């Protein structure tokens, strides 16, 4: 975990109004729409962007499938670009099984989402220097296949624990899950949708074992996800800071954009919640360390 600002005691309870105002980063946003024209699609995307911004999301990667909207990738990219709003840096992750040459270089497309049974297609994207992610199902073999194929990010890998084993030292990752952890392959979760009882969600265990975890909105808001983690697992602002920094670090945006977001938006917001007297003279140094860690 990165060194978080030393939060003032009056803010440690993570009250709903404090959490709602936190800058948030989501790597797995979706949109459903019956839009029949590019203009309607732009309007639907802008509505989604405004809802995310209202929840404090400052950076989001939205997953879109051209086939779902009956348009080609270039038209979808143009609609997404036209929907941009100033308060949200929204990027697009397109569904596909092959690199899409028709997308303009200046389109807000930063990565590609592969079908569950097409992890092997990652090699073609890698050859074109394009990042990929995959939604893994309940079968852990899909996680293994994605790791072997070199997919850059795993979505909803709640079955990671199927590869764990117990020894005298406690619970430890297996060969596949250990590979994923040790290479910091990011795991993206939407906890409220992934477990009937949130107490059964593996997120805290995965974090304790050193996995790189991030949280996205799912069918609710990121604020609600954070508050649920607070109520169920006792998560506070330090944990939210860590989840947010992990999301920034593992976005598909370029390094300059990630660093700018961290230094000018994320860190200043948490610094406002810190207690200078509690932190002493090392507060600014602690924040700088977090920024340096992200840059590395």
Describe what this molecule looks like in 3D.
This protein has 296 residues and is α/β, with parallel strands linked by helices. The chain folds into two domains: 241 residues, TIM Barrel, CATH 3.20.20.140; 32 residues, no CATH class. 44% of the residues lie in helices and 16% in strands. It contains 14 helices and ten strands. The longest helix has 17 residues. The two termini are 14 Å apart.
Which homologous superfamily in CATH is the superfamily of the largest domain?
Metal-dependent hydrolases
Q: Helix fraction?
A: 40-55%
Poorly predicted runs of 5 or more residues: 278-288
Q: Give me the CATH fold name of the largest domain.
A: TIM Barrel
Short recap of the structure:
With 296 residues, the protein is of the alpha/beta class. It contains 14 helices and ten strands.
Brief descriptors of the model:
single chain; 296 residues; alpha/beta; TIM Barrel; 8-stranded parallel sheet; two-stranded antiparallel ribbon; 14 helices; 16% strand
């Amino acid at each position: 975990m990165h060194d978080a600002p030393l939060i003032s005691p009056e803010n440690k309870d993570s009250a709903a109004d404090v959490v709602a105002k936190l800058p948030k980063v989501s790597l797995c946003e979706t949109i459903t729409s019956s839009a029949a024209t590019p203009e309607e699609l732009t309007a639907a995307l802008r509505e989604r962007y405004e809802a995310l911004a209202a929840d404090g999301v400052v950076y989001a990667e939205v997953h879109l499938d051209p086939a779902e909207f009956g348009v080609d990738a270039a038209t979808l990219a143009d609609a997404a670009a036209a929907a941009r709003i100033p308060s949200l840096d929204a990027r697009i992750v397109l569904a596909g099984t092959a690199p899409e040459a028709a997308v303009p270089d200046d389109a807000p497309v930063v990565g590609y989402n592969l079908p569950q049974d097409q992890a092997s297609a990652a090699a073609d994207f890698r050859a074109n220097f394009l990042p990929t992610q995959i939604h893994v199902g309940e079968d852990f073999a899909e996680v293994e296949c994605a790791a072997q194929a070199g997919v850059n990010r795993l979505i909803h890998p709640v079955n990671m624990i199927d590869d764990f084993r117990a020894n005298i030292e406690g619970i430890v990752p297996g060969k596949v899950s250990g590979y994923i952890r040790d290479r910091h392959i990011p795991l993206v979760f939407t906890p409220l949708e992934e477990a009937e009882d949130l107490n059964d969600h593996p997120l805290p265990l995965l974090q304790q074992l050193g996995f790189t975890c991030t949280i996205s909105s799912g069918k609710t808001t990121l604020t609600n996800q954070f508050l649920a983690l607070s109520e169920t697992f006792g998560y506070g602002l330090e944990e939210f800071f860590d989840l947010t920094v992990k999301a920034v670090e593992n976005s598909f945006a370029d390094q300059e954009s990630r660093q700018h977001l961290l230094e000018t938006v994320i860190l200043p917001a948490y610094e406002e919640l810190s207690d200078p007297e509690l932190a002493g003279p090392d507060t600014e140094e602690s924040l700088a360390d977090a920024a340096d860690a992200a840059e590395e």
